[in-house]
Amino acid sequence: MKLLLYTILGFNLIFGRLLFGQESYQLIWSDEFDYSGAPAPEYWDYDQGDHGWGNNELQEYTNSRENSIVQDGKLIIKAIKHDGKWKSARLVTKNSVDFLYGRIEIRAKLPAGRGTWPAIWMMSTDWEYGGWPSSGEIDIMEHVGYDPGNVHATVHTEAFNGSLGTQVGDSIMVPDFATTFHTYGMEWNEDRLVFYLDDKKYFTFNNDKTGNLASWPFDKRFHLILNIAVGGNWGGSKGIDPGLSEATMEIDYVRLYRVDPAK
Fold this sequence. Notes:
Layout: E1 3-6, E2 16-20, E3 23-31, E4 45-47, E5 60-61, E6 68-71, E7 74-82, E8 85-88, E9 90-92, E10 97-100, E11 102-109, E12 116-124, E13 137-142, E14 150-156, E15 168-173, E16 182-188, E17 192-197, E18 200-206, E19 222-230, E20 246-261
Parallel strand pairs: 1-10, 5-8
Antiparallel strand pairs: 2-3, 3-20, 4-9, 6-7, 7-8, 7-20, 9-19, 10-19, 11-16, 11-20, 12-13, 12-19, 13-14, 14-15, 16-17, 17-18
């Protein structure tokens, strides 16, 4: 089953409705990981390879169950070091669950260890405005192991991106990031991107309404990415703990909502 989700076309899957403040949140898709084995292929695919992924990362991404598996009601993503080489997983919903606008929530427990670089993020599905960063990148959660508990939300565009040093974002301290599940959320509409930790708002990126795609390319469908990188330009900038041989991120659920004004 392929789910192509667009606010402008309406939504066809209705699982429930919640009210928070002045908005109505209608659940339109979720993976509760209430099954066992490989991540559901109707939702999840894999990016694979060991070419550094544009950041000089060390891991090879695989589709092996050793690196990603659903068990005990959780999605487990595991980076493992074998014979000096790292293997990990990068799961994507591209062309299966793509969406334009809404609220997405991912409840997760993050890995610890210097050299780890887990991320919960989104990329353009169709790259209609060109390659990175012209079509945009939305980082809902990034964490680098050498700075424990400092969780980041960041937006990248042609005007605001890491290669120029102009990326826009903020961070929040999560001291128990590796021992407790927290909900990492992002709400997206035509006016702004708003980032949350456990429903606490901590970063907002506003559409400047100039029509300049270099600052706001966020009017096309995106998809979700879940991964653990090892090393890399940021994650490995303080080195990798030589005693580290395994790093695990657990995902309790992923939920996607349509957001409407409360009636």
